[in-house]
Amino acid sequence: MGSLETSGRPLLNRRLAGLGTTIFAEMSALATATGAINLGQGFPDTDGPEAVREAAVRAIREGHGNQYPPGPGIPELRAAIADHQRHRYGLELDPDTDVLVTAGATEAIAASMLALLEPGDEVIAFEPFYDSYAACIAMAGATRVPLTLRAPTFRPDLDELRGKITDRTRLLLLNTPHNPTGMVLTPDELAAIAALAVEHDLLVVTDEVYEHLVYEGAHHPIAALPGMRERTVSISSAGKTFSLTGWKVGWAMGDAPLVAAVRTAKQFLTYVSSGPFQYAVAEALRLPDAYFAGLRADLRRKRDLLADGLRAAGFEVYPPDGTYFITTDIAPFGEKDAYAFCRALPARCGVVAVPNSVFYDDPEAGRTQVRFAFCKRDDVLAEAADRLRGLG
Ligand SMILES: *Cc1c(COP(=O)(O)O)cnc(C)c1O
């Protein structure tokens, strides 16, 4: 290990200080080290459709995408993304100017923050945050302003949102369905948020990677609402929708000037990525509706399986309307600190989970919340529930 300082200055710059290692890496390493069941990180333990995986193999064999693909993404994938948005939501996108393929949603989020923010701008985002939001806002030199989602429903308080808007507010960073709470914004909430964005002339970046994983109600893109198209960057990804989180194919969508801005940052982050996978994802997006309905039904059943197991084990369970995750409260066990609980959990009963407390700026708000992922095989969920019953 080298010195942590040089010329009397810390190596890690001030913007990134305190960001540390992501909680997912820390808890997944703990799962590997202890052999515990990993319900921490949100990745499925069954790979996505065979036809889609075969399409990637075929693309590599046939020489599609083995060399740098075009900067905005291959035309086949951009067309498939535009068709998906029209088919699902009635949104019209020009695949040549309104769609940008990225290295997962993660890069789309980073490029959006780097492109759209000036140092000193304020970004309002729901807390608990998906952890890359805080880092990307920090890298852009901007300031995050949390809007706290509170148990048991985790619905945003829209009067509180209005109160957080200042003349420095530049952007609302939305996430629906929301990780980690599973909250899904309703049409009324989306309309109210859109009205605030229009009234205050704000940009909106919306992370919709769980758009197909909604178990109650439906997903509605805010970009479809009046006045929103010209101010909204919508982000999604193949990872969650096709159970292929390692492929890292994501996309940003919006009016041409917004996408051009995001592309300016993206081209100097990765330039391009995932060549052959882009061909396969173009095919995946054209899977029949039955695939998407099947995925949703399957995960809804897993949600219910794990929720029942967690309740039986003594957790307070906040059933999610979407995503891969169930947020619980550990107060019924007399526990006071989710982080300490999660560090001890593998030794206590052979299960790994993630403390939601690390996703809040307000240390009190999520102090006793623990998140479990249910995107796992049924037998794994049943075994985890069995083990957790030993906590008592
Ligand atoms: C998983 C996840 C991402 C990252 O998506 P990638 O396509 O893997 O980069 C972004 N946002 C949320 C809310 C997520 O849960």
TrEMBL record:
Q: Which Pfam families match?
A: Aminotran_1_2
- Its EC top class is transferase
Name the Enzyme Commission number(s) assigned to this protein. Answer: 2.6.1.-
Alphabetized InterPro entries for the sequence: Aminotransferase_I/II_large, Kynurenine-oxoglutarate_AT, PyrdxlP-dep_Trfase, PyrdxlP-dep_Trfase_major, PyrdxlP-dep_Trfase_small
Mind listing the UniProt keywords for this protein, alphabetically? Aminotransferase, Pyridoxal phosphate, Transferase
Q: Which intervals of the chain form a coiled coil?
A: none
Instruction: Enumerate the cofactors the protein uses.
Output: pyridoxal 5'-phosphate
Q: Please list the residue ranges annotated as the Aminotransferase class I/classII large domain.
A: 36-387
Which Gene Ontology molecular-function terms are recorded? transaminase activity
The entry's protein name is Pyridoxal phosphate-dependent aminotransferase
Q: Which organism is it from?
A: Streptomyces millisiae
